[in-house]
Amino acid sequence: MSTSAPSHVLAVCLGNICRSPMAEGLLRQHVQTKGLRIKIDSAGTNGYHNGEAPDTRAQAEMRRHGIEIAAQESRQIKKKDFEKYDLILVMDSSNFHDVMALAGDREEWRCKVKMFLADGNVPDPYYGGAAGFTHVYELVNEAADAWTDQWRNNR
Ligand code: 4NP
């Protein structure tokens, strides 16, 4: 990416209790490790879990790796977020569709939305078991490392 590093990044999934809270914790961890000053938040495309802490399975997987995300609270993405955040990273193509619909025809908002993974979706682990959360951790950790490397190189 040749554009300059963002200052505010928003990770987005459907419920904001599984994937994007893990992405928020991991991006923040890599940002800190690399000495960057970038604000990280997360949100969901729906508001079903507004005000809830991350799913206990997501908390447990992150805690296994020494990252505490229990204090995070689910919230729904809103139009104002396109003004505050300069990069919006979505977990899957359905999230991409929904966030683009919220952006409408404003090109300066649409161009802020990117897939979190370079090559596909972060699978939704909500209806599965603990192994799904481990898989999400691995995918998201590797991509968070790559994103933060890019931001460091474009400082
Ligand atoms: P997330 O997972 O989008 O990764 O937070 C889900 C959380 C809740 C639901 C679906 C997916 N739900 O249907 O309540």
Give an overview in words.
The model has no long low-confidence stretch (mean pLDDT 97). Helix 1 links the parallel strand 1 (8-13) and strand 2 (39-44). It is built from six helices and four strands. The protein has helices at residues 19-33, 56-64, 81-84, 93-103, 107-110, 130-153; strands at 8-13, 39-44, 87-90, 113-115. It has one domain (8-153): Rossmann fold, CATH 3.40.50.2300. It is an alpha/beta fold and 155 residues long. The chain has a four-stranded parallel beta sheet with strand order 2-1-3-4, sandwiched between helices. The radius of gyration is 14 Å and the shape is globular. It binds 4-nitrophenyl phosphate.
At CATH level 2, the architecture is 3-Layer(aba) Sandwich
| Count of β-strands | 4
Mean pLDDT: 97
Q: What kind of sheet is the major sheet? A: 4 strands, parallel
Supply the CATH superfamily name: Response regulator
State Rg: 14 Å
Q: Which runs of at least 5 residues are low in confidence (pLDDT < 50)?
A: none
**Order of strands across the biggest sheet?**
2-1-3-4
CATH class assignment: Alpha Beta
CATH fold type: Rossmann fold
Index terms:
alpha/beta, 6 helices, binds 4-nitrophenyl phosphate, 155 residues, Rossmann fold
Q: Can I get a quick summary?
A:
With 155 residues, the chain is of the alpha/beta class.
Question: Topology, pairings included?
Answer:
Elements: E1 8-13, H1 19-33, E2 39-44, H2 56-64, H3 81-84, E3 87-90, H4 93-103, H5 107-110, E4 113-115, H6 130-153
Parallel strand pairs: 1-2, 1-3, 3-4
Helix pairs in contact: 1-6, 2-6
The structure holds 4-nitrophenyl phosphate.
Residues 13-19, 48, 124, 126 line the site of 4-nitrophenyl phosphate (4NP).
